[in-house]
Write a structure and sequence with these properties.
Layout lengths: L8 E5 L3 H12 L4 E5 L2 H10 L4 E5 L7 H10 L8 E5 L4 H10 L3 E4 L4 H48 L2 H23 L8 H14 L3 E6 L5 E8 L5 H4 L2 H15 L6 E7 L8 E7 L1
Parallel strand pairs: 1-2, 1-3, 3-4, 4-5
Antiparallel strand pairs: 6-7, 7-9, 8-9
Helix pairs in contact: 2-3, 3-4, 6-9, 7-9
Length: 285
Amino acid sequence: MLSEKSKSKILVVDDMPENVELIEAYLSLEHYDVITASSGKEVLQKLKEEKLDVILLDVMMPEISGYEVCKIVKSNPETQFIPVLMLTALSELEDRIKGIEAGADDFLIKPINRLELKTRVKSLLKVKCMHDRLLADRNSLEIKNRVQSILTAIIPTLLRVVSNEEKKVVINQMTSMVEKTLLDIYHLESREMDFAYAGEVCAEIMNQLGGSFSSEKGEKENSWIIKGTKCPWKGEEACKNPILCTLTRKIFSSITSKVDSDFSVEALKTIGNRNNCCEFLIKAE
């Protein structure tokens, strides 16, 4: 049996107690967390109190109809993605159109069939789960981008005030963090890489940090060039700091080492050394 924390929470709404009891009995067999309401007003209160995954909503109710309740649910940004399964004894096309206009996600005709109820609810829960995952991924990406912006702004200042030994520690730690992120995002360990792909990944990482980098084939065989016209490390002081160029080179080295341990990265030009651009050469030893 699923734990209380992992159970999907379903709100069953009907002004007829016998209907609520029947549906609750059916859903309890699937180990859902079922809560109930007998009116539209009670639904609106439950929306404030509970984190719902699906709403089973009767159409014909006193005071506030199911259609009106559905409209309220779907017009609220905080609840609009909760799937609404409308329960109705009406099978006319006009009634279904009214439900669709109200924002209903699906319909069940009374009397309720247990297997059909189970299938419809399971399908709506999958949709809700997919939406929740997408939302979590979006929030995670936004947080990651904010952290990257903060790091690129803080690191130049930090490196100005620490000792040379501490600078080495900071650079090594940053390189390790970036390498772990690369393994997670690009699956570098699980795919065959060539110079071209390694160069593209190097350029993309710098661009994600706020730089402007590109990659192209080198003049010599088995070589690749990564060029940058805008430094990813924020601020004028950062652009003039060769220590940060070392960090960039070490990040590139960690990527190319996944291609071949005999490959190396050489800094030909760097903005930190007063060149007008950055230019890094990937080559075979």
